[in-house]
């Protein structure tokens, strides 16, 4: 069993109208964390406005670091977030 850390984002009410403005900076941060091996998976749920998104990180420190500087969080596109420890049984 391997421990990973899942970050859930709850979208702000106006996320769809404001996401494009901050997407390039958000994507650059995603790319940085993925390139260094800390971000394993990321994506939105079917309706990002009402269901939000999630990402999976290798460590709790990486998850916390990502959230603290994420342009979507810093600029108010995320209403709230939660980091959960996740015990992976089967990995790819």
Question: Your description of this structure?
Answer:
The protein has 92 residues and is of the alpha+beta class. It has a single domain, classed as Dimeric alpha+beta barrel (Alpha-Beta Plaits, 2-Layer Sandwich), CATH 3.30.70. It contains 4 helices and 4 strands; from the N terminus they run E-H-E-H-E-H-H-E. Strands 2-3-1-4 form a 4-stranded antiparallel sheet. It is globular. It starts with a strand and ends with a strand. InterPro entries: Dimeric_a/b-barrel (IPR011008), Sec-metab_biosynth-assoc (IPR051807), YCII (IPR005545).
In short:
It comes from Actinoplanes ianthinogenes. The protein is of the alpha+beta class and 92 residues long.
Q: Nearest-angstrom radius of gyration? A: 13 Å
Q: Return the average pLDDT rounded to an integer.
A: 96
Global morphology: globular
Major sheet strand order: 2-3-1-4
Task: Give a count of the beta strands, DSSP E runs of length 2 or more.
Answer: 4
Major β-sheet profile = 4 strands, antiparallel
Beta-strand share of residues = 25-35%
In CATH terms, the superfamily is Dimeric alpha+beta barrel
- Report how far the terminal alpha carbons are from each other: 13 Å
Query: By helix and strand content, what is the structural category?
Result: alpha+beta
CATH C-level name: Alpha Beta
Order of helices and strands: EHEHEHHE
The CATH architecture name reads: 2-Layer Sandwich
Helix content: 40-55%
Unreliable runs: none
User: What name does the CATH topology carry?
Assistant: Alpha-Beta Plaits
Give the count of structural domains: 1
Helix/strand layout:
Layout: E1 2-11, H1 15-35, E2 39-44, H2 48-51, E3 53-57, H3 60-69, H4 71-74, E4 78-88
Antiparallel strand pairs: 1-3, 1-4, 2-3
